[in-house]
Amino acid sequence: MSELVRVPVVRPRRLRRTTAVRRLVAETEVVARQLVLPLFVKEGITEPVPVPSLPGVVQHTLESLRKAAHDALAAGVGGLMLFAVPAVRDPGGTAATDPDGILNRAVRDVVAEVGQDGVVMADLCLDEFTDHGHCGVLGPDGEVDNDATLGRYADMALALAEAGCGVVGPSGMMDGQVAAIRAALDRGGHQGVAILAYAAKYASAFYGPFRDAVDSQLDGDRRAYQMDPPNAVEAVREIELDLAEGADIVMVKPAMSYLDIVRRASELATVPVAAYQVSGEYAMVEAAAARGWIDRDAAIVESLTSIRRAGARLVLTYWATEAAERLL
Ligand code: PBG
């Protein structure tokens, strides 16, 4: 060896030599109890319908939904987030507040299946229920009317709570939505129902496959209410507002392209921080793996680990059951 090469004294590689040592010193762990599985249920179908852009994900019948919920919790998954596709949509999203609407029925059925342990969550938003596909009701000018939407969210929160939902997840990015929902729940005697606020939710291209999963009617985009991807300081503001309004958990969404926001949220918030590994993140890994371009299992675990490492306590992921059963 040339005498110009100095022999290193400090050798970080020592702690990387074997699987056992790496396991001993790993800083971050993905654990099943912190994963939340999003589930889709569709009204009026008799068999589960696969979602082509989300291989492995289906639109459930009420019956197959119960089984999927049971299997997830049996595998150790910590929570479930329900989304529903109603048979009929209208401008106000009536089906969202109908006690016999598909989402409220699904909550009731899943709670009957898995018990009232507070881990059955529901997405609280109107986009699945409106015929125009926006997250709120439209004003005369054709724009989403923030304050009129708050009343609808309050009613939806009550319907979900009455169906037995333990955690509601407002995802519409209306100003004041957490306060409006908290007030409605409290007035309705549902002080125990928690709010998982989609606090920093970006107008993202990575929601593409989700819109297939809910047969989205949206023509256009949500940039007038969801956050603009260049902004990080604004995410801090959104998180602070949601905390002040009474959020019990704050969420950042999507996850992988917004890990800096997850980090900031985890340093700022004194409540648990969640991150949503969204449909497009899932689809990218599945599509690349299907072509043999990426090691699927390793990519799944690495992506979940990165989200946890950035500071998220909870991770919403379509891989929750499989990860809990087989990968962690
Ligand atoms: C709105 C909602 C969306 C997602 C979760 N809640 C869609 C949107 O904002 O357009 C996306 C989730 C995903 O892409 O996996 N109800």
UniProtKB/TrEMBL annotation:
Subunit structure: Homooctamer.
Xref: Pfam families: ALAD
InterPro entries recorded: ALAD (IPR001731), ALAD_AS (IPR030656), Aldolase_TIM (IPR013785)
Protein name as it appears in the record: Delta-aminolevulinic acid dehydratase
Record's keyword terms, sorted: Heme biosynthesis, Lyase, Magnesium, Metal-binding, Porphyrin biosynthesis
Keyword Protease: no
Ligand binding (5-aminolevulinate 1): 211, 222
Source organism (scientific name): Actinophytocola xanthii
Enzymatic reactions: 2 5-aminolevulinate = porphobilinogen + 2 H2O + H(+)
Domain of life per record: Bacteria
